[in-house]
Amino acid sequence: MPQSSRYSDEQVEQLLTKLVQVLEHDQTPTDLSLMVLGNMVTNLINTSIAPAQRHAIARSFAEALQASIREDRAH
Q1: Three-state secondary-structure class, residue 26
Q2: Residue 47 Cα distances to 5, 44, 56, angstroms
Q3: Does residue 61 belong to any structural domain of this protein?
Q4: In which domain, by residue range, is 34 found?
Q5: pLDDT tens digit string along 5-34?
Q6: Residue 53 domain-assigned?
Q7: In this structure, is residue 16 part of a structural domain?
Q8: Contacts 24+ apart (CB under 8 A), 49-52
Q9: Which of 72, 67, 46 is nearest to 57 (CA)?
Q10: How many CA atoms lie within 13 A of 12 on its CB side?
C-alpha cells in the first residue's frame, strides 16, 4: 500500500534527479553508490532521530526498501 507523504512528487523527483546527477557525473559504480547512500541514511538516522526511535526508524526504512524492490530481471 502506498504511503502518503507531506512532500509533493515534484519535490521528491527534483531532489532524486540532483542526487542521480552527482553520482552519474562522477561515474560512480553501483556498489559505491549504495555504500554512500547507506552511509547517508545511517548518518541521518544517528544525527536527526532520537536514540529511542532509531531502531524503529531503521526497521521501517528497511521494510520500505524491501517493499519497493522490483522482481523483474532488468538492470
Answers
A1: coil
A2: 22, 5, 15
A3: yes
A4: 30-68
A5: 899 999 999 999 999 999 999 999 999 999
A6: yes
A7: no
A8: none
A9: 46
A10: 6
